[in-house]
UniProtKB/TrEMBL annotation, chain A:
It comes from Nocardioides simplex (Arthrobacter simplex). This is Branched-chain amino acid transport system permease protein LivM. It comes from the Bacteria. It is a multi-pass membrane protein. One of its GO terms (cellular component) is plasma membrane.
TrEMBL record, chain B:
GO terms for biological process: amino acid transport. GO terms for molecular function: transmembrane transporter activity. It is found in: Cell membrane. It holds the Pfam family BPD_transp_2. It is a multi-pass membrane protein. This is High-affinity branched-chain amino acid transport system permease protein LivH.
UniProtKB/TrEMBL annotation, chain C:
This is Branched-chain amino acid transport ATP-binding protein LivF. Belongs to the ABC transporter superfamily. It holds the Pfam family ABC_tran. Keywords: Amino-acid transport, ATP-binding, Nucleotide-binding, Transport. CDD domains: ABC_TM1139_LivF_branched.
Length: 362, 299, 238
């Protein structure tokens, strides 16, 4: 058989691959549900980070808006959940859409300067945003608990009755919540990037002038995508709040957290669906397994080394490198137009013209 | 009056700190048109070196010297081996290298010296009578020292850029690297040297500023706020202007001291948010800053 | 006597695009050579390659008969080859003085740099008047004078000039060419001129290369080119 095998979208082999990927995902989720509580907690944490990094991927990966400050969206989502649960008595799971909404709006606002500020300067702005976030939390200490932190009482974390989980099975419930949110995030980003909108995002990233001259509204793409990006990371923040139970802006949502998200994205692979998953696995498990090295700082140094390796050897990240490896054997591409071969699209269009003629000249 | 003067002195002190780190950013930007995100962490690492040497009984003034040398080497090597190979690729790659340096140096500092906060020895003794009384406000010796050192660094750099051949070459590279190369300037060397000098100035600034920036101790996050303030200062003055760094730094330091002192709504602790506002405002309204000449964005 | 600069079978280009295909040219000491050719023939690319600005993908550069390895602008300058680039040949952000000083960066005899600056101020008195002015504020003609003076500050044995007359008033161009001829006569500096203004260039040149889409189409004495009607009609357009 000649390699690589070419698989066209919409054909049976393509559906088979899709089905296999989905099945693998379902199996992995089922496997995770049977884990010991501690290990399952780690998996939950991993999924939260995967959602957060997938959010970052929308702005930084697909549209090319560098953000070091997504920790602030993570924090904003977390405090939205905290405040709604503690002060308003909401059910925790119901705050996830609310956190998404709040961070969507915040993302739209932060995205506005991105219309004029580009590249490193935008990164600088988001960096300042990340550093300033704990200060803002401290300023509104009446709502957030300020520097002493915010505690979400365990009792208010009871899973809803319809879910069938009891208070003691809170972690299982959160695990499945994570699975659903992650699956939803991956599905939405997948569809988004495959759509015409994905094309617009790529155009804005590669060449703004060309994009705007082909009729793409750069302002809308940038602002909207930054909003969506913030929203998704905010939803991850909501899960994070439920997971942690206690929120410390100084501890969880500092600049370092923002950098960690970006590191995860770059290592995993920008502009890929699996990049955020691989990246999240790295940022959750590497510090865990290296915690005994270098007074707990071993992982930071290791991340620096991996980052440099990635940037020099595999600029598209681990997922990108794996992707090109797989592409040696299997290539998935868009289905060829069935009506006419590509070289004859010209005549095909012109032959359609006369049919429209009578409409114009009745 | 005395409260105003106190705030003025406090503002000048932190302003001088911002000026020093802003100068580092300016030196890098002038030569290589990029922001070194790890600038603060360079200074962090060398501050730990100074702290460690001082702990071994070395006089703190002497301990700064090896730190400056290490700083120079770090900056130069980072430019030569890490930044330059990816410069031609794109801005994201430069940013990622900057972040790698950021995490790496931060982690390395913690790895070697631990992540607990270190009480930092002062370069000048502080006590009950280490100040000059001006109309009831205390002008501490630290303030005088850091302003004096800032002035010396600015004067030294100005002389260096205007009177020496290598300074001339740096200015040439800042204006147009291609033309400079045609004059026989070895652009690569100039870039390496700029990064080295920039990190060396940071290494000098670190031990001066650590005791002055809350909480007055050396910790792994000591330089985050400093980097933000210095960036705001450098942007305000214009990223390619030494004069801009001085004016921007002092204006920001004094301005924030006054705002935090007099605008009570902010609760006295919104400095970083104010710096963020300054950064965004400058980038939106006048991206070249007050004294800068170059447009920041490349179309 | 070997050539100051000889290029053997140069191949160079930008990215995937090859502009020069095995171009060979040479300039003898104190000689004035002009390269003519249509737009896009690769004239500027040739000068970029000769000055060490553009890396070669093939061929060789020889100075005084010795091959140059690792041709970079500073290396070529040190060997006595200096370029007046097309358009803005000055550092517009620096003062006239600084531009001239910068031209002497590769020189070892720092003491004599001052003397040379004074000499160029006598050659171009208008530069002397504007010595502390930022180069970007000079007129086009003055900038071109500064570019020549700056390139000469390294005391080159060969001066490469890329379209020195471009965009300048005829009077100024005339003046510049007179100066170039003097430089060649009095200092013995060889010149390699790339010119649109063929008539003027042929007046001071002794030899001509015709560049045609990346290859040397013809070469010969300037005299024969001036007299040959068919070449004039085909390449020089008058």
């Amino acid at each position: 058989m000649k390699l690589p095998v070419i698989v066209e979208r919409g054909t049976t082999p393509y559906r088979a691959i899709l089905a296999a990927v989905v099945a693998a995902g379902v199996l992995a989720a089922l496997w995770g549900s049977g884990l010991e509580p501690f290990e399952q907690g780690q998996v939950t944490r991993f999924m939260i980070y995967a959602v957060a990094i997938a959010g970052l991927n929308v702005a930084t990966g697909y549209v090319g808006l560098l953000s070091v400050g997504h920790s602030a969206f993570l924090g904003m989502g977390a405090f939205t959940t905290g405040i709604l649960v503690v002060h308003q008595g909401w059910e925790p799971w119901a705050t996830i859409p609310a956190a998404f909404g709040v961070c969507l709006v915040a993302g739209l606002l932060v995205g506005l300067p991105a219309l004029r500020i580009k590249g490193l300067y935008l990164a600088m702005v988001t960096l300042a945003f990340a550093v300033a976030f704990p200060e803002l939390v401290a300023r509104f200490d009446g709502l957030t608990g300020g520097s002493s932190g915010m505690n979400i009482p365990r009792l208010s974390m009871r899973p809803p009755e319809w879910s069938g989980f009891t208070l003691g099975e809170k972690d299982q419930w959160l695990y499945w919540l994570g699975v659903v949110v992650l699956a939803l995030t991956l599905y939405v980003t997948h569809c988004l990037t495959r759509s015409r909108y994905g094309l617009a995002m790529a155009a804005v990233r590669e060449n703004e002038i060309a994009a705007s001259s082909s009729g793409i509204n750069i302002a809308v793409v940038k602002t909207l995508m930054f909003g969506l990006s913030g929203g998704i990371t905010g939803a991850a923040g909501a899960l994070f709040a439920i997971y942690m139970g206690t929120l410390f802006a100084e501890g969880s949502f500092t600049l370092m957290a923002g950098i960690t998200l970006l590191i995860g994205l770059v290592i995993g692979g920008e502009r890929t669906i699996f990049g955020p998953i691989i990246g999240a696995a790295c940022v959750v498990y590497i510090p865990y397994y290296t915690s005994s090295i270098g007074q707990g700082q071993g992982s930071a140094v290791l991340f620096a080394v991996i980052l440099l390796l990635v940037i020099f050897l595999a600029p598209s990240g681990i997922a990108g490198a794996l992707g090109s490896l797989v592409n040696r054997f299997v290539v998935v591409r868009a289905a060829r137009p069935r009506t006419a071969p590509p070289s004859r699209t010209g005549p095909a269009v012109s032959s359609a013209e006369p049919e429209r003629g009578p409409v114009l000249a009745p | 009056m005395d409260i105003f003067l106190s705030r003025l002195f406090a503002g000048t002190t932190s302003g001088a700190v911002y000026v020093l780190i802003a100068l580092c950013l300016v030196m890098v930007f002038r030569s290589s048109s990029t922001i070194n995100f790890a600038q603060g962490e360079f200074a962090l690492f060398t501050s730990y070196v100074t702290w460690w040497l001082a702990g071994k009984g070395v006089n703190i003034w002497l301990a700064v010297v090896p730190a400056i040398l290490i700083g120079f080497l770090m900056g130069a090597l980072a430019e030569r081996w890490l930044v330059r190979p990816v410069r031609k690729r794109d801005e994201t790659a430069v940013l990622i290298v900057g972040l790698a340096l950021f995490t790496g140096l931060n982690g390395l500092s913690g790895w070697i010296w631990g992540s607990d906060e270190k009480p930092f020895p002062r370069m000048l003794p502080t006590g009950e009578d280490t100040y000059i009384d001006i109309a009831g406000a205390r002008l501490h010796y630290d303030t005088i020292l850091i302003v004096a050192i800032m002035a010396a660094v600015v004067a030294g750099l100005t002389l260096f850029f205007n009177k020496t051949s290598i300074g001339l070459q740096m200015r040439a590279v800042a204006t147009n690297p291609d033309s400079a190369a045609l004059c026989g300037v070895r652009v690569g060397r100039v870039l390496t040297l700029s990064w080295g000098m920039s990190a060396a100035v940071g290494a000098l600034a670190g031990p001066l500023l650590v005791p002055l920036v809350p909480p007055g101790q050396l910790g792994l996050s000591s330089m985050f706020p400093v980097l933000i303030f210095a960036t705001a200062a450098a942007l305000l003055g214009g990223l390619d202007s030494i004069k801009g760094a001085v004016v921007g730094g002092l204006a920001l330091g004094i301005g924030l001291a006054m705002v935090n002192g007099y605008v009570t709504f902010l609760g006295g602790s919104m400095s970083l948010t104010s710096a963020l506002v300054v950064i965004v405002a400058v980038l939106l309204v006048k991206p070249t800053g007050l004294f800068g000449a170059r447009r920041l964005e490349r179309v | 006597m070997s050539a100051v600069l000889e290029a053997r079978d140069l191949v160079a280009g930008y990215g995937g695009l090859t502009v020069l295909r095995e171009v060979s040219v040479s300039v003898d000491p104190s000689e004035v050579v002009v390269v003519l050719g249509a737009n896009g023939a690769g004239k500027s690319t040739l000068l970029s390659a000769l000055s060490g600005q553009l890396p070669l993908t093939g061929g060789q550069l020889l100075v005084d008969g010795t091959p140059v390895r690792n041709a970079r602008p500073d290396v070529m300058l040190a060997k006595g080859v200096s370029l007046v680039p097309q358009g803005r040949g000055t550092l517009t952000g620096l003062s006239v003085m600084d531009n001239l000083r910068l031209g002497a960066v590769t020189r070892k005899d720092k003491a004599e740099v001052g003397t040379d600056i004074d000499r160029w101020f006598t050659v171009f008195p208008r530069l002397a008047e504007r010595r502390d002015q930022v180069a970007g504020t000079l007129s086009g003609g003055e900038q071109q004078m500064l570019a020549v003076a700056r390139a000469m500050m390294s005391r080159p044995r060969l001066l490469l000039c890329d379209e020195i007359s471009l965009g300048l008033a005829p009077v100024v161009v005339q003046e510049l060419f007179v100066t170039l001829a003097e430089v060649n006569r009095e200092l013995g500096t060889a010149l390699l001129l790339v010119e649109q203004n063929a008539e003027l260039a042929l007046e001071i040149a002794s030899r001509v290369y015709l560049l045609e889409v990346g290859e040397v189409g013809a070469s010969g004495s300037a005299e024969s080119f001036r007299d040959d009607n068919s070449i004039r009609a085909a390449y020089l357009g008058y």
